[in-house]
């Protein structure tokens, strides 16, 4: 029986993914960071879906031990922060929570933890359209660096590169992201109308639920191991 471990389960996409995995009948373990102020609420939510909750601390040996115990076949990495969240953590005097600490180091830790597991799980990484190591955009650069680790490492992997992930069902208000996605989707609708449907489908925004359904399909398709999957393949 397939066992899926979801890092970043409490995020917009993560929550939808846990639900989609359970709907697909896949044994699912939702990771909740041990310092989360909402542990009880997450436990109730995920357990109601039939998923288990894990709160392993963010160290490589501890994560390896957990993934071995769970015999995880699929490990999803959906971790990420925003500039706003990083700033709020800094103001509150908390630990560094910028792109380097979260998007890069936590993802790299989860990947390194998988390397110690036999048989190796498939690592499914939610990257981003435009991820590149040689860009001046800090967000896309850390994603490019994570993708590099996956390509050079020995684990089976799939990289998924969506454009904006947004929807009216996102609990956290992200007005800038919503406006940018709406404008972009409008321009892309025009592009689609003049025959540029591939361009439209690659760049237009996707909801958490659509993306989650696509991630489950990706995970079930062994031919996508070692591949980069773009948004139009997810719909
Ligand atoms: N939003 C977009 O338009 C977009 C586009 C392309 C790619 N992506 C990427 O796709 C992934 C999922 O996106 P999303 O919008 O669904 O993410 P999200 O809602 O922002 O969720 C991010 C996840 O990362 C965890 N996280 C953040 N800071 C953390 C920290 N300091 N320590 C431990 N965990 C931490 C969160 O846990 P808590 O709930 O405990 O904070 C949450 O589970 C992210 O990697 C994102 O960068 C996003």
Keywords:
235 residues, 7 strands, globular, 13% strand, single chain, Rossmann fold, alpha/beta, binds NADP nicotinamide-adenine-dinucleotide phosphate
Briefly characterize the structure.
The protein has 235 residues and is α/β, with parallel strands linked by helices.
Description of the molecule:
With 235 residues, the protein is of the alpha/beta class. The chain has two domains: 3-162 and 206-234, NAD(P)-binding Rossmann-like Domain (Rossmann fold, 3-Layer(aba) Sandwich), CATH 3.40.50; 169-205. The protein is built from ten helices and seven strands. It has helices spanning 12-23, 39-48, 60-70, 83-91, 100-115, 138-152, 175-193, 197-203, 208-220, 231-234, and strands at residues 3-7, 27-31, 52-54, 74-77, 122-126, 157-161, 227-230. It has a seven-stranded parallel sheet with strand order 3-2-1-4-5-6-7, sandwiched between helices. Strand 2 (27-31), helix 2 (39-48) and strand 3 (52-54) form a beta-alpha-beta unit. Helix 5 runs parallel beside helix 6 (138-152). The chain is globular. It starts with a strand and ends with a helix. NADP nicotinamide-adenine-dinucleotide phosphate binds next to helix 1 and helix 5.
């Amino acid at each position: 029986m397939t066992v899926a471990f979801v890092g970043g389960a409490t995020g917009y996409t993560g929550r939808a993914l846990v639900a989609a995995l359970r709907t697909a009948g896949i044994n699912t373990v939702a990771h909740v960071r041990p310092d989360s102020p909402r542990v009880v609420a997450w436990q109730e939510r995920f357990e109601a879906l039939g998923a288990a909750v894990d709160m392993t601390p963010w160290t490589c040996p501890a994560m390896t031990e957990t993934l071995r115990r769970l015999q995880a076949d699929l490990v999803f990495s959906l971790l990420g922060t925003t500039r706003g969240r990083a700033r709020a953590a800094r103001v509150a005097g908390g630990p560094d929570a910028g792109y380097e600490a979260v998007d890069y180091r936590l993802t790299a830790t989860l990947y390194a933890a998988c390397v110690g597991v036999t048989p190796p799980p498939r690592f499914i990484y939610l990257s981003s359209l435009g991820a590149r190591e040689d860009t001046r955009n800090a967000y896309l650069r850390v994603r490019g660096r994570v993708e590099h680790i996956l390509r050079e490492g020995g684990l089976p992997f799939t990289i998924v590169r969506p454009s904006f992930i947004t929807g009216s069902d996102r609990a956290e208000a992200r007005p800038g992201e919503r406006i940018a996605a709406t404008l972009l989707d409008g321009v892309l609708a025009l592009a689609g109308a003049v025959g540029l449907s591939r361009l439209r489908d690659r760049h237009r925004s996707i909801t958490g639920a659509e993306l989650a359904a696509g991630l489950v399909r990706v995970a079930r398709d062994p031919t996508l191991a070692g591949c980069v999957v773009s948004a139009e393949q997810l719909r």
